[in-house]
């Protein structure tokens, strides 16, 4: 639960599907740590059963513009974004995040994990692809007690994976998500305001524009 | 790299196989945090290229005798150990650990990850089984840049997985590991001394006894 457009919509989706939701955020050394305030606002507004924030330091490895002294790219076209894997990619981030979710799920005896990744209007991250999620799910079902005992089958849900950003904006509004509470920018200013020029801001703007909706942020 | 018998032997094995070794330990809220001192001693003695310790809090989820207010079982027979998954199992621990190793490996552009798990004389942990490691390797190769680009293939090595504890003791001695530096106990006293009665102590004692070697610890 990053507090962005996608994870906030994913949370609302899981709630509407009837799940009791335990939200998990990560304080991992990200440049845009202000997103955690958005995550807390959105989780509170959604009425989750619990919201935890795991503190872990992915800066210790570096290798990304989000966790290291590397500039966040600005003003790129969508074509440029979908070429090479961008420097905002954080090595193994979703693997680490899903591993923590798996740990909590096992303790909660939960059999469903939702993640708001998107493989259509995305930034070319390897760990947002369906084939990655399928492989993670297979691994997760062997990693835990329930996998050994065959009691439950852990399912990784990625309801946004094949939606466009415009679709996600429309779905968020249909689900009643207050998008004013969300934060998407990779490189906010000291006051937490979005830069409007990083890949994340540009993809969000494109989504709102195509959906014909004004972004309250 | 926990600083126990298995991870210390695994490290020496990787060095002898010609690898430059980057050791990774975890300060995860474990009851036997003193093992990190052993990890530092062993890594130093082995002459690793780097040794990092990732700080993360698996106590936030609990659910294990190693990270929660649950008593560590004492005086169990090996038959008792190999029945149910014991309460010392930490939910998704090896998945979390290997995910961090994957993150560092990607930044280092390393293609080989070694883990000292053992599925023969072990405590029945689901995430020590070969099928788990195979599934993790498949997932890891889809999770990262190199997987997308097909440049290198990440390999998870578990050289101890099918060895008995006695075999591991013999291998450690053959590889010149100073076993006096290691720590295996789940429930040491305030001075860091092994209890001699937890599963980890008993499996270690069994290994030394069967190898006909006196444990310097």
In the CATH hierarchy, the third-tier topology of chain A is known as Rossmann fold
CATH level 1 name of chain A: Alpha Beta
Number of helical runs of chain A?
8
Question: What is the CATH architecture annotation of chain A?
Answer: 3-Layer(aba) Sandwich
CATH superfamily of chain A: HUPs
Report the biggest beta sheet of chain A as strand number plus sense, adding barrel if it closes: 2 strands, parallel
| Main interface: chain pair and counts | A-B, 43 and 43 residues
Q: Radius of gyration of chain A, rounded?
A: 17 Å
Helix content of chain A: 25-40%
Strand content of chain A: 5-15%
N-to-C SSE series of chain A?
Answer: HEHEHHEHHEHH
* Category by helix and strand content of chain A: mainly alpha
Widest beta sheet: strand line-up of chain A: 1-2
Q: Can you tell me the overall shape of chain A?
A: globular
What does this structure look like?
2 copies of one chain form a homodimer. By secondary structure, the first copy, chain A, is mostly helical. Chain A has helices at 5-16, 35-46, 78-81, 93-108, 130-143, 145-149, 165-174, 199-211, and strands at residues 22-27, 50-55, 112-114, 155-157. The first copy, chain A, has a single domain, classed as 3-Layer(aba) Sandwich (Rossmann fold), CATH 3.40.50. Helix content of chain A is 40%, strand content 8%. In chain A, the strands form 2 sheets. A two-stranded parallel ribbon of chain A has the order 1-2. Chain A is globular and about 50 Å long. Chain A starts with a helix and ends in a 6-residue tail after the last helix. The interface between A and B is large, with 43 and 43 residues.
